[in-house]
Amino acid sequence: MKTLFSKLRNNSLMIIFVLALSIFVPSFASAAPYNIGWYVNGDSNDAAKLSSFASAGATLMNSASSAWYYTGQPYILTNYLNAAQNVGIKVFMSVSSAPLTDSQITGLVNLVKNHPAIAGYYIADEPELGHGTPADIQRIYDLVKAADPNPAHPAMIAFCTISQSGSYMPYLDMVGEDYYPAGTNSALGSFGGQIPGSYDAWKDMLQNAATYGKSSSVAIVQGIDLDGSGNPGGYRDLTDGEYRYHVFSAVVQGVKNILFWADFSDWASPTMIAHGNKMMSQVQAIGAEMNNGTSNSGLAAVSQSATNLAYRYGVNGTSGVILAVNIANRNGGGSTLSNVSFTLPSDVRPTSVTVLDENRTIPVSNGVFTDTFTPFGVHVYKFTISSTTPPSTPPPAIPGDLNADSAVNVTDFNIIKTDFLRLTAALSNPKSDIDADGQATIKDVGILMSAWN
User: How far apart are CA 56 and CA 88, in angstroms?
Assistant: First the structure.
């Protein structure tokens, strides 16, 4: 894909237009306002549990075991997918839970590939830790893609150490990173352990995906704990505040797929399961706005720099949302940010904003409101936009008018050329992702060219 990009840079605009009509870059299409759910082991494979997951906001699962297929019980797998479809959940089919033969992999994919509940295929878990060589993963990837070339069904791999993923990147469509930061050696509520590193973990994952031209990614967050069971995992419960920072630091950067890892038969206490369900509900409450949003852009002004405060602004119909996360001094214990001011776009003038999950509202004066953030604090502001006055961002008034000069021309083309194949978090101009699918792709080039004037 990088070779293609270099050719696109040097060829004429007409060639770009032709390619825009003929090339599709895979991306994971959302089946619900936000793709979030459980990546679970143990008795969670019971299809009866899917309804309770969905009621808490889950729309995505990575749990269906290929063992049901190769042990001669494919009907269990089919029943599971049917149950998922009935409650609006998409499922990643695991083909990594056992060493399958070529015919078993092909047969498994052929069995499920046309099922409406299939989200994609989970082909390897932490291979860089000795769970599979690049050649092993290439074999599985090639077999899966040969049986199901549908770009809407990506092959996903989760890594523990994203910096060691390079040799595997040619053999996946969606890159995941698991990050479980709360060890028992950190006091409850202290933001100890590696919790402050959550923002940088998701940032590294997005940058890695952009480097290798991958159009989608998934953050795999902590859903496990020690729970006094003697389990050697060494994880503790997270508090609400720690969990909000851990999860929302992914959302604020434009991550659009989140899975909570847990083993419900052993490693997940009722407290952690309740926390996970609560977080899914909170994310889902702003999912549509966040999927439509842009990171660190869209507002007229914010009094703190992006190195201290990360935000994402999104609009869905007449609903506007600002998600803001305090990332200041995150490697040194965090810092309080006092009297942070947010200036809304000139045509967005609510009288107040509601701070979700905090039971408070803040008055807005001439489009400006202020708030204070404790270290690692997260606030979610929701407000109503007049239905008679459309918001100025996003999306741009003219699709493809990336510099807002009311024209689509070579200036806009040069902007999208710079951002080509970058994920949202890495764009030099957030508007380059014209169709808001998480990446500036050839589809966005096609949209821009169709509006050329």
Answer: 12
Question: Per-residue pLDDT tens for 416-439?
Answer: 888 888 877 778 888 888 877 778
d(CA 396, CA 403): 9
Mean pLDDT of 406-420: 84
Sign of CA dihedral 106, 107, 110, 111: negative
The whole-angstrom distance between residue 262's C-alpha and the CA centroid of its chain comes to 18
Per-residue DSSP letters for 11-37?
Answer: S-HHHHHHHHHH--------SSSSEEE
Two tokens, residue 356:
């979700």
**Phi/psi-derived region of residue 72, left when phi > 0, alpha when psi is between -120 and 50, beta in every other case:** left
Q: Distance between CA atoms of 6 and 18, rounded to whole angstroms?
A: 16
Checking phi first, is residue 169 left (phi over 0); if not, alpha (psi -120 to 50) or beta? alpha
| Rounded Cα distance, 201 and 182, in Å | 14
Model pLDDT for residues 371-382, shown as the tens digit of each residue: 999 999 999 999
Task: With H, G, I as helix, E, B as strand and everything else as coil, classify residue 380.
Answer: strand
Average confidence (pLDDT) over 108-132: 93
| Rounded Cα–Cα distance for residues 374 and 391 (Å) | 30
Phi, then psi, of 62 in degrees rounded to 5: -125, 85
- What φ, ψ does residue 135 adopt, rounded to 5°? -65, -40
Cα 269 to Cα 222: distance, rounded to the nearest angstrom: 12
H/E stretch holding 262: strand 257-263
Residue 294's CB: how many other CB atoms inside 10 A? 23
On the question of a cis peptide bond just before residue 395, with omega within 30 degrees of 0, the verdict is: yes
Per-residue model confidence as pLDDT tens digits over 45-71: 567 788 888 998 999 998 766 766 767
Query: Look-up: residue for tokens 């060829």?
Result: 11
Using a 10 angstrom Cβ sphere, with 0-12 exposed, 13-18 middle and 19 or more buried, the burial of residue 204 is: middle
Q: How far apart are CA 290 and CA 390, in angstroms?
A: 17
Nearest-angstrom CA–CA distance, 97 and 94: 6
Instruction: Name the nearest CA neighbour of 323 among 371, 286, 372.
Output: 286
Tokens 């997940």, located at residue? 268
Q: Quote the CA–CA distance of 73 and 102 in Å, as a whole number.
A: 18
Indicate the residue type of 273.
I
